[in-house]
Amino acid sequence: MKKKTRSPASSTAKGRKTAVAQRKATPPRVRPLKAPPHHAKSAVQGLRIQLAQALKRIDELQARADTDFLLDILNRRGFERELHRSIAYIKRYHASGGLVVLDVDRLKPINDAFGHAAGDEVLKEVVAALRRHVRTSDVIGRLGGDEFAVLLWNLSETDAHAKAAALEQAVDRLVFMFDGHSVTAGASAGVAILGPHAEASKALEEADRAMYVRKAQRRHEAR
After folding, report:
1. Rounded to two decimals, what is the model's pTM?
2. C-alpha pair distances (Å), 87 with each of 80, 148, 191, 192
3. Among 2, 109, 202, 215, which lies 20 to 30 A Cα-Cα from 15?
């Protein structure tokens, strides 16, 4: 009998199949993850620290931009921001509030007669008086010059007008001594009620108009 011989092609095909089978049977080699070098960790930690410092600095600048430096209360920008937030809350939760705009009556004559340092002392004492007569949840702001605003939470229209009168009286009772002269400043207050249909700009205008009406009334009463 003649011996069967394999062709080179069949031997090559068989070898390929064997190699493929071996590759499938052998599990892939998994390379272990290398820990980042120490200097890379330090760099990441440094970036995180810098980011935290930058965010803190942004918060500080934001607070400074909203604060009156002399009196340590909100300036007009900061107060208007709080007023917008409060009105949004009032509308959403059907709450109530009052806005009082208060103007110091005789600050300009005091500045003219005794200097701006005396006027600054008057403003500081006015703010201290307002703080003594409002709750910690209420918000005080300086709208500019000798004009202040107080945001009052959860009170009726009657209570808001009563609070405005009390704030007037608190400022009226302040007495200052400048160059041996006894001086009073006085204040006039106007009120706007904050309800479900309130708008910040209109509320400020309404309270401001009421304040000027009250100022004229007080001048007439003083004659």
Report:
1. 0.74
2. 10, 18, 15, 12
3. 2
